[in-house]
């Protein structure tokens, strides 16, 4: 089970080069449930993600989903990429320690160049509800489908997304 909150970013933190980072390319074979292929640095991954966006989750302001990841070969990734819907999402993901949490800051490239999102995962819903974000975070967009990567991969332009 994955429990997370997602935020727009008002201002990038200074000196991102000091944090661990991954170069990510991901494509979607299906939007709901999300079936995604991802290249993360030199790793290839197939992910099944079933989001539970019922009213309880929305009321708590959290994204809660079941997620299963399995490794892929490079050849399988390339084969499946040809079958993907929409566009490939490319981004650099920085992993920024923040107290007991890790902020995953996504700096998007290509079609979404200049767009930033931050996600934080929690062990339980109570942690998520009590979370106090750093001041460089913007609006909480956890329940807004416009900010889900499978929606972004449909090719919707950034200026069509509510900021």
Question: Mind sketching the topology for me?
Answer:
Blueprint (H helix, E strand, L loop, with lengths): L1 E8 L10 E11 L3 E7 L2 E10 L2 H6 L2 E10 L1 H8 L3 E14 L2 E8 L7 E7 L2 H6 L6 E4 L8 H4 L11
Report the mean per-residue pLDDT as an integer: 90
Largest sheet: 8 strands, antiparallel, barrel
Task: Classify the helix fraction into a percent range.
Answer: 10-25%
Q: N-to-C SSE series?
A: EEEEHEHEEEHEH
**Shape assignment:** globular
Helix count, DSSP H or I runs of 4 or more residues: 4
Low-confidence stretches: none
The secondary-structure class comes to: mainly beta
Across the major sheet, the strand order is: 1-5-4-3-2-6-7-8
- Percentage of residues in DSSP E strands: over 45%
Q: What is the radius of gyration computed over CA atoms, rounded to a whole number of angstroms?
A: 15 Å
Q: How many beta strands in the DSSP annotation?
A: 9
How far do the termini sit from each other? Answer: 28 Å
Verbal overview:
By secondary structure, the chain is mainly beta. The chain has 4 helices and 9 strands; from the N terminus they run E-E-E-E-H-E-H-E-E-E-H-E-H. Strands 1-5-4-3-2-6-7-8 form an 8-stranded antiparallel beta barrel. The radius of gyration is 15 Å and the shape is globular. The relative contact order is 0.27.
Describe the structure concisely for a colleague:
This protein is mainly beta.
């Amino acid at each position: 089970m994955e429990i997370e909150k997602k935020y727009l970013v008002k201002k990038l933190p200074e000196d991102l080069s000091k944090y661990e980072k991954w170069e990510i390319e991901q494509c979607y074979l299906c939007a709901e449930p999300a079936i995604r292929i991802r290249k993360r640095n030199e790793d290839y991954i197939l992910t099944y993600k079933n989001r539970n966006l019922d009213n309880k989750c929305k009321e708590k302001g959290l994204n809660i989903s079941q997620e299963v990841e399995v490794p892929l070969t490079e050849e399988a990734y390339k084969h499946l990429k040809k079958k993907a819907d929409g566009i490939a999402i490319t981004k650099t993901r920085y992993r920024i320690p923040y107290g007991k949490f890790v902020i995953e800051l996504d700096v998007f490239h290509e079609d979404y160049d200049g767009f930033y999102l931050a996600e934080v995962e929690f062990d339980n819903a109570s942690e998520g509800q009590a979370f106090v974000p750093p001041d460089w975070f913007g609006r909480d967009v956890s329940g807004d489908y416009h900010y889900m990567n499978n929606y972004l991969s449909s090719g919707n332009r950034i200026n069509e997304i509510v900021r």
